[in-house]
């Protein structure tokens, strides 16, 4: 009996080691493939899946198995700018509902998880730690407040992890040391918290290329962030040009190791890194999953960059 137990334990350990090795190797491949991207990279559109539900305003996305998880904000009343700051705020809170949608590869809604409390109804960029989806949900205004949730992907149980006295627009879980990283409104500040939400570090973002919308941990103390910068463009119908981009950052120093612009647009005229983005290794290079459009026009768009 003891020999059988030892053999079974050995098999289990080998299986666990193989799984971890495969995940680390895949993350390493994503990082190396990302470093090959440039402004001349050709993003080849592979597929477009129409979402079979109202996606509202998508924010963050990740994939777990054959399911996608997407955070989104349903805006009921838009915040209004004040002529003069009131109680430290530059605008009203507005009203809305926070969502974490679970949907299939075919765009079918499987679950709608409501998130938020009071004025905190705006979910941000999300990340998966192997067990939980991490989602910040903030007031829809800068210098405000947030709740950071974690949602178990097996039970879909929602647990409040901690609260922050700032608008947190996205979070990343460092699977290596358990620390949680966050970006503020417009990603102008970086935060680092301990496992229980104790603040460890805050520093300013020195890059002004794009504002990060969605970030994801890719192993080896690295994360990949996506986002946009709205530039004035008097020649466009909207008066704005959406400059899209991607960046690979060191989570310990927040130094940018590689970044590239993205100039692919949806049929609605939005750059594909405007809303949630998720990257993974493909046989030929790297795949990009994005949902750049809002409401009933939202589609999951899949691109591949060949190295």
TrEMBL record:
Alphabetized UniProt keyword annotations: Signal
Signal peptide limits: 1-22
Record Pfam families: DUF6454 (PF20055)
SUPFAM superfamilies tied to this protein: 3-carboxy-cis,cis-mucoante lactonizing enzyme (SSF75011)
Protein name in the entry: WG repeat-containing protein
Organism domain of life: Bacteria
InterPro entries: DUF6454
């Amino acid at each position: 009996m003891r020999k059988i137990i030892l053999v079974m334990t050995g098999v289990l350990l080998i299986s666990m080691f193989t799984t971890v090795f495969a995940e680390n190797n895949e993350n390493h491949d994503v990082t190396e493939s990302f470093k090959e991207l440039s402004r001349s990279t050709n993003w080849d559109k592979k597929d477009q899946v129409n979402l079979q539900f109202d996606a509202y305003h998508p924010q963050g996305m990740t994939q777990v198995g054959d399911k996608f998880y997407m955070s989104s904000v349903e805006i009921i009343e838009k915040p209004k700018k004040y002529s003069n700051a009131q109680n430290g705020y530059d605008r009203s809170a507005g009203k809305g509902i926070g969502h974490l949608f679970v949907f299939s590869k075919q765009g079918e809604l499987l679950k709608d998880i409501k998130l938020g409390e009071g004025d905190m109804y705006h979910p941000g960029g999300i990340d998966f730690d192997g067990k939980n989806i991490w989602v910040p949900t903030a007031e829809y205004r800068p210098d405000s407040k947030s709740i950071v949730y974690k949602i178990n992907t097996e039970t879909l149980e929602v647990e409040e992890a901690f609260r922050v006295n700032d608008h947190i627009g996205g979070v990343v879980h460092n699977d290596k040391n358990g620390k949680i990283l966050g970006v503020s409104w417009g990603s102008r500040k970086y935060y680092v918290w301990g496992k229980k939400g104790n603040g460890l570090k805050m520093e300013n973002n020195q890059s002004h290329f794009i504002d990060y919308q969605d970030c994801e941990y890719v192993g080896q103390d690295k994360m990949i962030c996506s986002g946009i910068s709205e530039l004035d463009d008097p020649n466009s119908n909207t008066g704005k040009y959406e400059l899209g981009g991607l960046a690979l950052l060191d989570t310990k120093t927040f130094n940018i190791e590689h970044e590239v612009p993205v100039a692919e647009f949806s049929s609605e005229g939005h750059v594909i890194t405007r809303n949630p983005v998720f990257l993974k290794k493909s046989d030929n290079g790297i795949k990009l999953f994005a949902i750049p459009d809002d409401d009933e026009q939202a589609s999951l768009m899949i691109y591949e960059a060949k190295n």
